[in-house]
Amino acid sequence: MQGDQTVWHTDYYVSRLKKTDSLKPNSKNSGDDSDSDDCFDDGVVEENDATGTSNSLLNAIFQPIQTSHRKKAEPSKELLAALKVLNDALQKSPNGNLPHHLKNAINIIQQEWFKVSSVASANPLDVEDYLDCFEDFSSRLLEHIVNMTDVSGNTAMHYALSHGNFDVVSILLDSKVCNINQPNAAGYTCVMLVSLAEVHSETHRQVVRRLFLMADVNMRATQHGQTALMLAVSHGRLDMVQLLLESGADINIQDEDGSTALMCAAEHHHIEVVKLLLAHPDCDLTITDYDGSTALNIAMEAGHRDIGVLLYAQEHFPRDSSPYSSLKNRRAKSATPTLKSSHPRTPTSPHPRSKQDYTF
């Protein structure tokens, strides 16, 4: 399962190249016997230690990052022995029911795997080395360990997303065996966790987009019925809201209180998010929660008159064309129907839009 290691260094290349802006070769010919490569915009540089340093710097900058001398991460002897035991058991148990005596082997695997893959400082190259080792045993062992959970029901993917370690996320997606729709013990999927993250580079944004396109972005949390879109909206994550909409998130799904993403944005006064949602052709302003309130009612009750004006104008004036208009034909909406209840429930945590921001 060898991947292209250069993708993790994209941002590093860019940052190094930006530092060379002041090192532009001088196009003038000095006419002497000195090496023209030693000439820069700020004048002719004599052949001395400074010149050697400059040339060395340029050579270092334009040389590809070498990973051949990196020492490959190798599992411990205890882990290798445990992997063999688990792999043998998996081959003998097609239904996945593992015998109780494997508990010790599984504990050894969990401890070392999560130590390598699930800490904030996890190295994607080390993670890939371990995945290669698992796959050398069997693809079934690889799938079992990649989706292995801790006591909180979190997988390595849950942790990588929580830490914002998108390089590790990319490696786990490359394994092609990661169950990204698997919820943790609190009922939250990987998509829900990453909806609260901040993305600081286009490279990482592409990783998130890839995750969204592979996952069911319309799954609801098991406890209170929120979707990833509701979570992103409630926390004002404009970039995540846009990525989710581009990936086919259903804008009108209601949680167990009947709240929609638009209602969440209206109450929490995320005006830019409101504008983005209103630009979506499927956004339905007439939906009411189980208290009978629309998004406009909620905005006005919260004292957000500026958002109220936007919502009122959207109800009485034609919509503009939207880049999301083709999504209906590209991706089906969630198979889960809109929740309906005549007796709304008040969830404890995370709180609904009528109380506080959604939190984990």
TrEMBL record:
GO annotations of cellular component type:
cytoplasm; cytoskeleton
Keywords, ordered alphabetically: ANK repeat
Could you tell me which Pfam families the record lists for this protein? Answer: Ank_2, Ank_4
Does Transmembrane helix show up as a keyword for this record?
no
Origin superkingdom: Eukaryota
Which GO BP annotation is one of this protein's?
A: negative regulation of actin filament polymerization
Annotated ANK repeat ranges: 152-174, 224-256, 257-278
Listed Gene3D superfamilies: Ankyrin repeat-containing domain
Return the PROSITE patterns for the record. ANK_REP_REGION (PS50297), ANK_REPEAT (PS50088)
Q: What is this protein called?
A: Uncharacterized protein
Q: What is the native source organism of this protein?
A: Clastoptera arizonana
**Taxonomically, what lineage is the organism?**
Eukaryota, Metazoa, Ecdysozoa, Arthropoda, Hexapoda
